[in-house]
Specification:
alpha+beta; four-stranded antiparallel beta sheet; three-stranded antiparallel beta sheet; 6 helices; 50% helix; rod-shaped
């Protein structure tokens, strides 16, 4: 491994073939064990050294270089462990192994080794957290009930506007018809049923669907016999009846599904 110099926190991080130097302290690869990597905002390589757990920081832009270096260190230590566990077959193989393991002489042996200032112990407050997303329960045909509810709220505006026009026409003609009032109450039923249907679309019980269906059926009944002076009102009444039937079907299916689940 060639000598590599990197800058970390304003200091030089030097990698040689046998050790890494940082903050005036030299750490031998051969004495490192349990090497691991820590990412995040302050990335570092962690390892056991002389009975301590140390962290060697590096700059994020040097990640690729650091990764390659420590891959070589891990490979060297693994090879050393395999060679140490193997029984030498002959004197020649023993001498070759000794030459391979000979450390590089320290160019400045008299220099004292100060305590490292930037070698940080592994933080114990960094547990790995696994987030498990809980699947939300949905009612039978939840999306369809949501769409019907939104359509009902929009139709409230349209039917209410038409009802006001029809009521004004009945008043001016003095024909005694109540189609305007019937249309307005039908619009109110659409609005209430739409809100209840949307709010209860994922309910476990069937009460919400039944109440919504009843509201739609009431709106349909209010339109009976009103087509003479308000031609569109029977159409809205028929649509309200269809929506009511849909919610009755949803209530029945919901009850069957819950019963099937309780039998398991």
């Amino acid at each position: 491994m060639q000598t590599i110099n990197l800058q970390v926190n304003g200091r030089t991080l030097t990698f040689t073939g046998q050790a890494v130097s940082y903050g005036g302290h030299e750490l031998l690869y051969s004495k490192m064990s349990n090497i691991a990597h820590r990412g995040g905002e302050k990335p570092a390589f962690l390892f056991d050294y002389d009975g301590k757990r140390l962290a060697l920081p590096y700059e994020p832009q040097d990640k690729e270089v650091i990764m390659k270096i420590f891959q070589q260190v891990i490979a060297m230590n693994k090879k050393r462990e395999e060679e140490a566990a193997r029984e030498p077959e002959s004197l020649d193989s023993l001498l070759a192994f000794a030459e391979e393991e000979a450390p590089v002489p320290n160019p400045n042996p008299a220099a004292p080794s100060p305590e490292p200032s930037k070698i940080e112990p592994q933080s114990a407050s960094e547990p790995q957290v696994i987030y498990v997303e809980k699947k939300k329960d949905k009612g039978f045909w939840s999306v369809g009930r949501l769409v019907i509810g939104i359509i009902s709220m929009v139709l409230f505006i349209l039917i209410a506007f038409q009802s006001c026009a029809a009521g004004l026409s009945n008043t001016l003609e003095e024909n005694g018809e109540l189609s305007g009032s019937a249309g307005f109450f039908t619009a109110v039923m659409f609005l209430i049923a739409g809100i209840v249907g949307v709010c209860t679309r994922n309910a476990k019980g069937i009460a919400g669907a039944i109440v919504t269906a009843v509201l739609y059926f009431i709106g349909a009944l209010l339109t009976i016999g009103t087509g003479d002076t308000y031609g569109d009102l029977p159409i809205w009444g028929g649509l309200s009846a269809v929506f009511g039937i849909v919610f009755v079907f949803c209530a029945v299916k919901t009850k069957l599904i819950r019963k099937k689940q309780s039998d398991k």
